[in-house]
Amino acid sequence: MVRLTPAGGAPVDPARPLTVTAVRGRLTDVTMTTDDGRQVAGRLAADARSWRTTEPLAAGARYTVRIGADDGRGGRGETTTGVTTKPGNQLLTALLGPTEDQDDGSPVYGVGQPVTVQLSRPVHDPAARQAVEHGLRVTSEPAVSGAWHWVDDRTLHFRPEEYWPAHATVRVAFDAEGRHISDDLYGGTPSRIAFRTGDRVVALVDARTDYLTFRRNGEVVRTIPVTTGKPGFETRNGIKVVLGKEAQVRMDGETVGIPTGSADAYSLDVQWATRVTWSGEYVHAAPWSVASQGHANVSHGCTGLSTADARWFYDHVRVGDVVQVVGSNGHGMEPFDNGFGDWNLSWNDWLAGSAGGSAVSTAGGPTGDVGVTPDGRAEPVGALVPQI
After folding, report:
1. Which of 77, 79, 110, 118 could bond to 321 as cystine, CB 3.0-4.6 Å?
2. DSSP letter at 13?
3. 284 catalytic, yes or no?
4. Inter-residue contact 284 to 312 (CB < 8 Å)
5. Catalytic site includes residue 180
6. Residue 210, Ramachandran bin (φ over 0: left; ψ between -120 and 50: alpha; else beta)
7. Backbone CA torsion sign across 354, 356, 362, 364
8. Would you place residue 158 in the very low, low, confident or very high pLDDT band (cuts 50, 70, 90)?
């Protein structure tokens, strides 16, 4: 005779272990499997009188338990029973990014685009964060070495050690349905996305020479005269990622703290604006400063080009492409919260932000699990209107 604990046939608490006890004799074999045939880990006591699960059960799941026992008097028997678990009271879901197709309707991004995950609930505990990363999976063709980084308790980013390869296919999935995360928090509805990368486009803006060098797949395509931020409004140094493009945008100095009537005040419509920070830094047409482009820095922080050059740049970049500024006296690009400054962190610093603490491969197959961000495409509340 054997007994299951908890007993009674009602759904059991997935946070508690399931125990099988031999009322008389001993257990010879206990196997517990999920609906899809995966075996649940368990341990038989040294005296073979009891067996218990050694891994958390999933919430809202069904299991089959097969029990073999010896009554101690030469009699042997087997029995099979079903067990269901209660659904979790709190479910964790994940909004994966990038989430939007481009203007041409294709899910193609630049090689600097990070994967982002926005969790529905905060996760603080290191072990719980590892459980989240275990439920996240990034695969790519070709495969790369990459890692997750916790931006905050609800946000993760995934990036390779270097930029994504050109023309890669990237697939992202969150599949922790029913899995225990922490306390009464369990994985909720799965989600998945896929996107591709285009050519490797990197635009290098040198604030010392006032020229932009545009490279595609490592080859210099064009060098373009520009102007960057003047003293007091210096352009941020560092690596930025294209966030969006606007054929025309209204720029008003008051939104960045420049009072109306001051010598630096401005309010105007600007054409062919390629956005690189949420606080309002763009690469855009600045026909009023053509005489200074290639010679001096006279903007309020943006990178200014002639109208024709700005249109060309606008037409030849996509969201996720890389814009790097060097030689400016401005402060460094923020790693997070003002766009995608992820690439400004060293690889060691990036790894330090992972619950697992190490890089993983994005190769496909059953060993390709990787730990993965708010939706990185969404503009945060209170974002500022552009500066020029």
Report:
1. 110
2. P
3. yes
4. no
5. no
6. left
7. negative
8. very high
For 320-332, give one letter per residue: b (16+ CB within 10 A) or e.
bbbbbbebbebee
CA distance 193 to 118: 13
Q: Which fold has domain 90-198+342-361?
A: Immunoglobulin-like (2.60.40)
In angstroms, rounded to a whole number, what is the distance separating the alpha carbons of residues 208 and 327? 5
Residue among 149, 284, 316, 331 flagged as catalytic? 284
Amino acid at 25: G
> And the tokens for 76?
């042997």
Domains 2-84 and 201-326 share a fold: no
- CATH class given for the domain over 201-326: mainly beta
In the chain, domain spans = 2-84, 90-198+342-361, 201-326
CATH class (in words) of the domain with range 2-84: mainly beta
End-to-end, the C-alpha distance of the chain in Å comes to 80
User: Which of 134, 149, 157, 302 does the annotation list as catalytic?
Assistant: 302
The pTM of this model reads 0.81
Query: SS3 for 229?
Result: strand
* Residue 75 pLDDT: 76
3-state secondary structure (DSSP) of residue 175: coil
Cβ atoms 182, 128 nearer than 8 A: yes
Asked if pLDDT for residue 129 goes beyond 90, the answer is yes
**DSSP code of residue 377:** T
Report CA 135 to chain centroid distance, whole Å.
13
Side-chain-side CA neighbours of 315 within 13 Å: the count stands at 6
